[in-house]
Every structure is written in structure tokens, then in C-alpha cells.
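Supplementary Note 3. Input sequence used for the single-chain structure prediction.
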Amino acid sequence: MGRPKKTASAASTNKIHQRRGAAPKQVQDAIERHRADEAVAAKEEKIQQLKNSLHKTTASICTGLEKELGQQFSPAFVKAMAEASYHFAETVAKDVEAFRKHAKRATAMVDDVKLCTRRSRSLHSAISEYAEQLSASRSAERPHKSASEAAAAAVALDDAEPLDPQLVLSDTEDQITAAMQDCDEMEDIL
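The predicted structure, written as C-alpha cells, is reproduced below.
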């Protein structure tokens, strides 16, 4: 019996192909799959960080409501509320993106968010109220203009400025309370 023939390893074969200037299709596919896997892993990690942050915020709000209402919320309730909030926010984000694309704009606007929240009266009014406060505070920061210039600037601001998610989160407690009331209303209807 003779010795088995030595075969070139895949790595050495790939090096030979790379020296020749063209990587084989399998190597290119493997590189693309690896990059795609890394992108997916990074996205999943970012989503998990967001969910953890939302859970922490929800727990904090529930703790405040426990003191205010004299009720206790179980950890399962807090987790369910955080998960429901995440899915609601995800749905709103997808709808806002669809409205932005439909309007052929590069930036989502306050009106896009208002459209998404129109079915929840309390959330819609909270978003509208916040947008008005933001518009008023920004126009107050600018130098005084004539009434017509100020009105035009307010309209342009409402149409041109994207909604800052960090500022919206400052009213999260009121929004969750309102969302809970909406859920109670939905349960009554069902």
C-alpha cells in the first residue's frame, strides 16, 4: 500500500487563486455570508440593548406609578408592558417610514408621527401637544421677526424638523398611562 497523495488544503488553494488575482466564487460567497452574519449580529445586539433600556425605563415608570396609584405591578406585567411598548414603537416606526417614502422625503416629519398615532386619541394629543411646544420653544430661541415671518417659520419648522426621539421619551410616563387607559377601553369594547 502506498502513501496517500498530499492534497492542497482549501486555504492554500485560496491563496493560489488570490495570487492569480481572482478569488474563487466559494470564497467570495463565504466572505459575503460572514459580513451578513456580522451585520445581523450587530443589529440583534442593538435591538437587545434597546429592549433592555426600554424594560428599565418601563420598570422605573411602573415604580413611580406604584407609589402614585398605590398598586403593585408584577415583574411579568412590567416585562409584558415593555415588550408591548417595543412592538408598538416598532409598528409606528415602520408606518412613519412608509409615510416618509410615500411623500418622497428623505426625513420623517412630525406629521408622519401624528398620522401614525391618530387612532390613539391620548397619544395623538400628547404628540401634537409636544410638537406645538417644540415649535414654540424653537421659535422663541430665534430672533424676533414680523408676525408673517414668524408664522411662516413655524409652518416651515413643523414641516421641516424631524422629531427628536429623546425629547419624546421624556413624556413616556404620561404616554404609558394613556396607553394603559386605551388598553382598558379596548378590553371593554372586546
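The longest helix spans residues 25-69. Confidence is low (pLDDT under 50) at residues 163-170.
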